[in-house]
Design goal:
By secondary structure, the chain is of the alpha+beta class. It folds into 4 domains: 125 residues, 2-Layer Sandwich (Beta-Lactamase); 104 residues, PAS domain (Beta-Lactamase, 2-Layer Sandwich); 206 residues, Phosphatase 2c, domain 1, CATH 3.60.40.10; 113 residues, Serine Threonine Protein Phosphatase 5, Tetratricopeptide repeat, CATH 1.25.40. It has 23 helices and 26 strands. It starts with a helix and ends in a 7-residue tail after the last helix.
Amino acid sequence: MSFRAKLFAIIGLSQIILVSLLVFSFVILIEKVKNEPQDLRAFELASQFEKELKLNEERYKNFILDLKLNQNLNEKLKLGFKNREYLKSNSKVFKDLMKKNNLSIFELIDKSGKVFYRFHREADFGDDKSDQKIVQKAFQSEPILILESGHSGLGLRYANKFEENVILIGEVVNSEFLDKLSSSESEIAIFDNSKLISFSSEKIKNYSEKYSSYKDIPAKKRIKVTENYFYTVKLPYTNNGLTNLNLEFLILIDETNLNSKTNLVWLYFTIFTFTIFSLIFFISFLFSRDITRAVKSLNFAMANIDEDEKKILNLERKDEIGQMSNVFVQMKEELISHQHNLEDKIDKKTAELQESLAQVNKLRFQQDGDYFLTSLLIDPLMKKTYANNLVSVNSVVKQKKSFEFKGKNVEIGGDICVADKIVLRGEEYTLFLNGDAMGKSLQGASGVLVIGTVFKAMIQNTEEIAELNKKYPEIWLYDCYDEIQKVFLSFNGSMLISCIVGLIHNETGSLYYFNAEHPFLILYRDKVANYVDKEIHIRKIGLEKDDSMPFKVFTFQLESGDSVIIGTDGKDEIMLKDKNNEEQVNTDEQLILDTIQILDADLVKIKESIFTNSRVIDDFAMMKITFDENYKLKRDKISSKINENYKKAVDYYKIGNLTECISILEKLIFDNPNAILLKKQLAKVYFKNQNYLQSIRMSEDYLRYFPLDNKILEYTSYSYFKLDKMQNGIDILKRISLREPENFRIKEMIDQYKVELTP
């Protein structure tokens, strides 16, 4: 498409949009100008109907008052209530009165509430109206006006007491009634529960009958009926207690003359718009022709550099094209000038670039030297493998930053894996750390240096200081977190790290760990991989403590052959290609679990699979800890004989004979010292019998094999408190509170014994 065509397209499109907006605005304006007065006329017509009812009520009152005051008529009615034949003989008098007063309903109702005589239907009488509201109110001297649907359609009725009887008068709300309300420019119809019951003319009747119900008739719509144009309005009847009917109005406002005037306005608008559009289009044509000629001249001059541009271009133009022409002339002159000394400038620039490259290489060598020194500092802090008789630890690490320094291939990054052993309270534990420091290359490596140094110091201090190696594993983990957190907080948020630090009791396979916003720990058991937990209780180390996230030590019992895998979880660190071959950050938590299961938790194969099938965008570090598959906890199986005696002990316990229960359990344990589960039950019975010292002894024997039983720990803590061994009770209470920071029962004990939770 040529420049001129594009210019015309832009101008033409803008004009079309402008005209469309004008037409749209004009349509809305015309509709609003037409609708508001028509809606008001319809509302006034509906209001006029209600006013007419009130005027008729006054007329009915005056009619009955005239009957009562006219002695002749009064006497005739009195005699008539006693003799129906007398009324029949004088019916002409009353029918003349009905005609004179535009009444179509005139009934006499006796004191029993039955119709005694109807002047408008003389053969129809005797029906009981005592249950009708209008009759009841009349007998109570409370005359009311009511709209009701009867034999002749919608009727307006009024009842008043006469002596001990009632006179009921009214008229049918028919076409004549409504025609008096409507004008030559309006039609009205009345519906009851969507059924047409009255109308002002056949024209509106025929229109209404085209629809199955009142709801289907469109409102605020312009229609054509015969040769006339109408505007439809639907209004509800304002019921002021006159009826129980659900009345609604349909009003047609004649717009034939208005439609003609509107069409004339649209004709003028079209002519005016077309004239303006044509004028703008003609001006645009002249404008575009001038621009395109100037642009073509400039284009020709640029394509034919050897031509004399002063003969081709109009350099006297004051607009942007004239400025471009002058700039082109200046550029041409400068280009010719530069062409003569271009070789000198190239040589000079080449020398400058070579000097800059040498400087960059020098700086890079210095940077790689810094990186290499950092890697040497980190290396002794990393301990990727560890093994003892029961637990083995393996790790794979691939840092994002890799480089060569003096012939050596080196990696540096923010991931760390450490495995070691530690002795607490005479029990040997396997200690592990897997962490991911914030930042890449040197920043991440700095975080690794800090946490690695602090962690190694914690291990050495625990080995050398008796007070530290007497701590329980939960307390030690809290102290470890506290020490690392204090150091990282000093960096004011510029250095953060996520990590999992844990202990495995080598004898029982009991696992203790805390997770500082690190990928969840994965359990691989019986060829199936699952997350051990899915809750974050601690924010990244280096961030201020969040009171809504209390510190928690997770516990888990490993079984023979179990493996736990820590580190990269396959989310947020790898890029996968979607069906459109576009890279997306992986968000599937199941991906790493499936990979572990398929590759049987082989870390080397897992690493190769991830790096082959995706693009890793961060440091990569995974740690696998395996509990000996041949290990079996030394405890006797409960024989049928033990079960039989145990049931006897339970029966004694149920009837409250704790002495006999204890005696049986003690004998069973004496004969079966490895029946560890019996010790748990005996500890509970001792506790209930308030033999707290023996309860502690049994609990501690049991906890040697099942150290993760929080309920037995509670019994033990409470027993120590009962024996006034406060420090022992407090130490155990701290352990439980670190495992279950939201346990309300433990919180009550903490408040009761005023325990300071900070280990």
